[in-house]
């Protein structure tokens, strides 16, 4: 079990991201989710402390989770002959209690399967 403050579940789902109130949307996938934040694999690097708006499709037949988050960290990686990828950690700054509860259920379910 993950012993971090907010246990994380390896859980891939689609996420849409908007930065700096821009109209352009970035679509990517998550690496893991928790009730405190999410790790998203991006094709571009974002600045630390940058605020973004996220929509996370949890695949639970409900509307996407809509929230605001801050970039907390980035790890750069590259597969052989592939493009750079940026595993980016986000901390939720504004998320509804009901959406946090949905994420909590998914995390608990996936951690119980281990």
Radius of gyration from the alpha-carbon trace, in angstroms: 14 Å
Q: Largest beta sheet, briefly? A: 6 strands, antiparallel, barrel
Report the end-to-end length measured between terminal Cα atoms: 8 Å
Spatial ordering of strands, largest sheet: 2-3-4-7-6-5
Q: Report the β-strand fraction as a percent range.
A: over 45%
CATH architecture: Beta Barrel
Shape: globular
DSSP summary: helix tally? 1
Average per-residue pLDDT, rounded, comes to 91
Helix content: 10-25%
N-to-C SSE string, H for helix and E for strand: EEEEEEEH
Q: Kindly report the name of the CATH homologous superfamily.
A: predicted glycosyltransferase like domains
In short:
By secondary structure, this protein is mostly beta strands. The protein is built from one helix and seven strands; from the N terminus they run E-E-E-E-E-E-E-H.
Features:
mainly beta; Thrombin, subunit H; 114 residues; 14% helix; 6-stranded antiparallel beta barrel; globular; 7 strands; 47% strand
Written description of the protein model:
With about 110 residues, the chain is mostly beta strands. The protein has one domain: Thrombin, subunit H (Beta Barrel). About 15% of the residues lie in helices and about 45% in strands. Strands 2-3-4-7-6-5 form a six-stranded antiparallel barrel. Strand 3 and strand 4 form a beta hairpin. The protein is globular. The protein starts with 8 loop residues before the first strand and ends with a helix. The mean pLDDT is about 90.
């Amino acid at each position: 079990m993950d012993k971090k403050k907010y246990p994380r579940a390896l859980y891939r789902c689609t996420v849409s991201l908007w930065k700096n109130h821009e109209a352009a949307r970035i679509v990517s996938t998550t690496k893991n989710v928790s009730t405190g934040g999410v790790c998203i694999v991006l094709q571009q690097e974002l600045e630390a402390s940058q605020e973004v708006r996220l929509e996370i499709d949890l695949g639970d037949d409900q509307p996407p989770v809509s929230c605001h988050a801050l970039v907390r960290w980035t790890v750069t990686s590259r597969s052989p002959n592939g493009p750079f990828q940026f595993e980016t950690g986000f901390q939720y700054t504004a998320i509804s209690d009901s959406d946090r509860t949905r994420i909590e259920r998914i995390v608990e379910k996936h951690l119980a399967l281990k």
